[in-house]
Write a structure and sequence with these properties.
Elements (H helix, E strand, L loop, with lengths): L1 H4 L21 H4 L13 H16 L6 E3 L5 E3 H4 L19 E3 L2 E3 L7 H6 L4 E9 L11 E11 L1 H6 L4 H21 L4 E8 L2 E11 L2 E11 L1 H6 L6 E8 H9 L12 H4 L26 E9 L8 H12 L3 E12 L4 E10 L8 H19 L1 E3 L1
Parallel strand pairs: 1-5
Antiparallel strand pairs: 2-4, 3-4, 5-6, 6-10, 7-8, 8-9, 9-10, 11-13, 11-14, 12-13
Helix pairs in contact: 3-7, 3-9, 11-12
Length: 387
């Protein structure tokens, strides 16, 4: 990935990147590595992070949580997968889903990648906030870089013995009480429900949903930590709960932000609407984001035959290619037609690209140039035949 090596002076993470054949980090992603939106106090993500930390400081003032927000997003595959019990062969380990630096190093897919190392270091109650990376689709709610918060709370035998509960009962009860309190702190009195879920590193596992604007929305995932993780951290006689939430998902709901790309905008019409301290507990009387003029979209379709038995094309690799060409000017990539031709023994796909800037009108020439770059790279890199 020579285009990355040419930019070593622009990014403190540059020395990690090599020409390793496993490396699938595009320049577009590389440029996001040191932005740290969650550390910007007047950014909606920074505001939300502070509000959540304040809740945990109030609730656990006698046994305080430690907050980590500057841990490197470049982690080992062992930390990202094995330490949280992601099984070998799981789809998330694929380079179609995960950004690899080399065979043993990735851009973290979740802040849970730091869970075991912090437990081994002696941390017992902590929140980890940071940027995470996943190869994904392109639409208003998905972005390859987003921000998560991971929370862990460990209990000792005397904690459940004093309450005359089993260790599982205590951890389960405290988990739900804590996270229901967090949701009320953010949204006020709101209808909630617990839904059984599956995460490899917790059992039992849950998702917490809220009834908001007439529909049920999932706001976080959580559960009681698997004993094998505690055993690995030399905490075999302890219990713990853990949760994870996406800051963008919550901020889009709380502030009425319609497009996830806006979090990366430098347009003053966006950034000036947010100030540290603007959040009101329960969202009462809080100013929402006021949308400014939405610029017109430009639609471009591309149709192509997929090479028989090709392994180079996937929808995620297509989205990565388009993002690398168009950056934040691409709003959506959508499959609108697919058919199989038995005579040719080939499959045809037609994708519609929606180009739209959040800040200005795009010209026809500008969009045409982007589309031509996409078409050319589709042939060169993804082994397709344009129709």
């Amino acid at each position: 990935m020579n285009h990355l090596l040419l930019r070593v002076f622009l990014n403190p993470y540059a020395d990690i990147f090599t020409d390793d054949p496993k490396n699938n980090v595009s320049e577009y992603i590389y440029e996001k590595l040191d932005k740290n939106l969650h550390l910007q106090t007047n950014h909606p993500l920074g505001i939300l992070k502070t509000v959540i930390e304040e809740y945990f400081s109030m609730r656990f003032k006698h046994k305080p949580f430690t907050f980590y927000d500057d841990l490197t997003p470049i982690v080992s595959t062992q930390a990202n997968f094995d330490s949280v019990l992601v099984p070998p062969g799981h789809v998330s380990r694929s380079s179609n889903d995960t950004y690899y630096v080399d065979d043993n190093t990735v851009l973290r897919c979740h802040t849970s990648a730091h869970q075991l190392e912090l437990l081994k270091s002696g941390a017992r109650r902590f929140l980890v906030t940071g940027d995470v990376y996943r190869r994904d689709s392109i639409d208003a709610t998905h972005f390859p870089v987003f921000h998560q918060m991971e929370g862990v709370c460990v209990f000792e035998p005397q904690d459940w013995e004093a309450r005359q509960l089993s260790s599982l009962e205590l951890a389960n009860s405290e988990l739900k009480i804590t996270l229901e309190g967090l949701v009320r702190h953010l949204f006020g009195e709101i209808q909630m429900r617990w839904v059984d879920a599956y995460f490899p590193f917790t059992e039992p596992s849950y998702e917490l949903e809220i009834f908001f604007n007439g529909e049920w929305l999932e706001v976080l995932g959580c559960g009681v930590m698997q004993k094998s993780i505690l055993d690995e951290a030399s905490l075999g006689n302890h219990r713990a709960w853990a949760f994870g939430l996406g800051l963008e998902r919550l901020a889009m709901i709380l502030f009425d932000i319609p497009d996830i790309r806006l979090f990366w905008s430098t347009d003053l019409r966006f950034s000036k609407q947010f100030k540290a301290g603007m959040f009101r507990a329960g969202g009462v009387g809080m100013q929402k984001f006021s949308s400014y003029s939405k610029f017109p979209p430009c639609y471009k379709d591309v149709s192509f035959w997929l090479a028989k038995d090709s392994t180079r094309f996937t929808e995620n690799t297509l989205c990565e290619l388009v993002r690398d060409v168009a950056g934040n000017l691409i709003e959506e990539v959508k499959l609108i037609d697919e058919f199989y031709n038995p005579k040719l023994d080939q499959t045809s796909n037609c994708f519609r690209f929606t180009y739209r800037s959040m800040e200005r009108s795009l010209t026809d020439d500008e969009v045409n140039q982007l589309q031509e770059q996409v078409r050319s790279r589709l042939v060169d890199e993804l082994d397709v035949t344009l129709r």
